[in-house]
Hints:
The protein is mostly helical.
Amino acid sequence: MFQCEIDFNAAVPVEAGESPDALFELGILYSSGRAGVIDLVSAHKWFNLAALKGRVDAISLRREVAEMMSDVEIAMAQREARAWISAH
């Protein structure tokens, strides 16, 4: 049986740079814990990026995630989103 660990923080789908749907799915992945554990900072980052790319339903999910986060965590997610935009 094939077993490995995937680094979801480093892995980004090829189409993520172009597709708000792929960014949205990453938000779902991290907010639901399907990536292994729930990571609200990453979820907020991906929903934020999806919203910036035009995925309107990402706005409400980003807001929902933000309600469970501290101000420091939100700031961290926003920094990570800006860094991702700069890199892509």
